[in-house]
Amino acid sequence: MDYLIHLLVLWCIYSLIAFGLNVGLGYAGLFSVAQMTWAAVGGFGIAILTKKFGLDYVFAVPIAVGIGLCTAFCFGWIAARMRNEVFMFATFALQLVVTELLIAIPAVSGGLIGISGLAPISVFGMRITGPTAFLCVALPAVIPVAMLCATLRSTRLGTEFLAVREDEVYAQSLGINTSIRKAVAFAIGGGAAAFGGCLLAIYTRYVEPLSYDIQASILILAIVLIGGAGQPWSPIWGTAVVLFLPEVLRLLPLSDNAFAHIRQALFGAILVAIMRFRPKGISGDSWFRSIQ
Amino acid sequence: MQLFVDGIVSGTVCALVGCSFALLYRVAGFFNFSFGASYLVAGYTLLWTKSHTLIPDWLAAVLGIVAAGSLTLVLEIWLFRPMRRIGMGPVALFIASLGFLFFVAHIVGAVFGDYPVRPWGTWQPVTFFPIGLRVTTGQLTIVVLGLVQVILLIGMERIRPIGVLLRAVADDSDLATDLGLPVNKALNVASLLGGFLAGSAAVLFTLEFQLRPSDGQSMLFLAFAATVLGGRLSFLGVLIGGLMVGMIRNYGVFYFGNRYEDLIVYGLLLAALLVRPAGVGGYQSVTASLR
Asked: Which residues of B touch A291 (CB under 8 A)?
């Protein structure tokens, strides 16, 4: 039962990060394979702020999310002039750089081992430790952010994102500053991911660079593509598929190492299959027109 | 000087994989990361045939390379061509190939285990010592065979009919279709050749280094960096980019310690992409890349 609750918590956190990517990729058409970079900014941000500077979570989480927003905005703004494909290469390089950087500077990030022993959060004097209690705290925090990301699509800003995705030159001719729109979409995605990274770090109470590497970013990308990029609520379904489908594998007699490998291989296979047979994803949108 | 030699050796392998990227990027217009899968398939086919059968070593190596080439060919026909037919762009093809790479890398990891292997066993190569340098036979073979392949590739561009066909499709694939040129054949040939190159890179790599399931990704990322730094299109540029990556890694380890070897390469790649999205080689016109 505890394991089921644990999966539900992960469902919350991963869909939050994927909601962020859905704003950048689904609405504004920015193909990013570096979503976990901003989760790492959030996770390592609060780990460093609370462990090294002794800040409380009340201050550490907003600061970490703020750093995520700002860095994502800067990167999005610099990279906005690239076309789709080169933008993706840049995020790819960024992801590799950030992972290597976190491993290479143990003084800040703890190296490969990461930082462990984060304090559990306390709400009204109660220490939140188990998954059940954490779920009760995480849900009220996740739902507003997810709703913000999802309802953004029907606002004016969201419509402008869609215009940028569908035809950048045409959007420019309508007077939309596409660079700023791209940067804003990327920043919203980065902020949501940073918040998700904070929650993940608080929940597991440790951070390590390898849980934010390129494979994790591809996993988030797979979540969004499976759910159907551009559909406001699709990350929920995508995360459900990615989290619960591999659990079927537990029925097979596999060693831990083999299980981990087969699980990752399954993600790869799902990604190939979804691109080949149903590029719209489960819920379906005409997103793939934007990548022609 | 020893660093220089080691840099050239690992850079040549990197450049070989990079050339397979550049070959397919020119013809098909996307980065095919499934070459990482062919790389692994070649390496582990060699390992398996050497340890489980009695066929001679050179035949095992050829078998590995053929397996790698057929894998990319099959992928081109069964995966990428149908996707292209329904109008999917380079980004979608890239993501599919990336998914396939993870699929193969983790299947290999599950079957053969994570630990590094040496397909050539305890084979100790002869060592040369010209002017105070240590050059092993394995290193010499890698550099000579690697450079020969790149030169052959550059020479092949000028040979009729296949090199000219590849160039025609690379320059303007729509025009080539309108002229009735066999575009699909060109794609098949490019995939096959690319698979051979990636496979032979893996076989050469195992002469001197250990093979690991994660190599499919790490070598691929380095080759990706080499290709982008080399301008993405010209084989000579990719060769220079690959040698550069090899040098940077070796000198980086020497001056900064081994934690930073990949960081410097990736950092350079990121900087190059941010500052000059058109590529350092400058082969593409700037307007084309900025759209």
From this structure: 88-92
- Hey, are the CB atoms on B107 and A279 less than 8 Å from each other? no
Buried b (16+ CB within 10 A) or exposed e, B121-135: eeeeeeeeeeeeeeb
A100 contacts B88? CB cut-off 8 A: no
Query: What does pTM read for this prediction?
Result: 0.88
- CB contacts < 8 Å between A and B, how many? 138
How far apart CA A138 and CA A140 sit, in angstroms, is: 6
ipTM summary value:
0.85
Q: Which of B94-98, B152-156, B213-217 has the lowest average pLDDT?
A: B213-217
- According to DSSP, the residues that pair with A207 across neighbouring strands are A115
Whether the per-residue pLDDT at A64 is higher than 80: the answer is yes
Q: Is B104 on the interface with A (CB under 8 A)?
A: yes
Contact B277 A78 (CB under 8 A): no
| Contact flag B99-A264 (C-beta cutoff 8 Å) | no
What pLDDT digit, counting tens, does each position of B133-144 carry? 777 777 888 888
Strand B127-128 and strand B135-136: pairing?
antiparallel
Residue A160 to residues A29, A81, A155, Cα–Cα distance (Å): 12, 17, 9
Q: Does A275 touch chain B (CB under 8 A)?
A: yes
How far out from the chain centre does Cα B43 lie?
A: 13
Of B87, B99, B106, the CB nearest to A272: B99
- Among A22-36, A162-176, B20-34, B111-125, whose mean pLDDT is lowest? B111-125
| DSSP state letter for B11 | H
CB-CB under 8 Å, A93 with B225: yes
Residue B282 has pLDDT above 70, yes or no: no
Condensed to tens digits (0 to 9), the pLDDT of residues B106-115 reads: 999 888 888 8
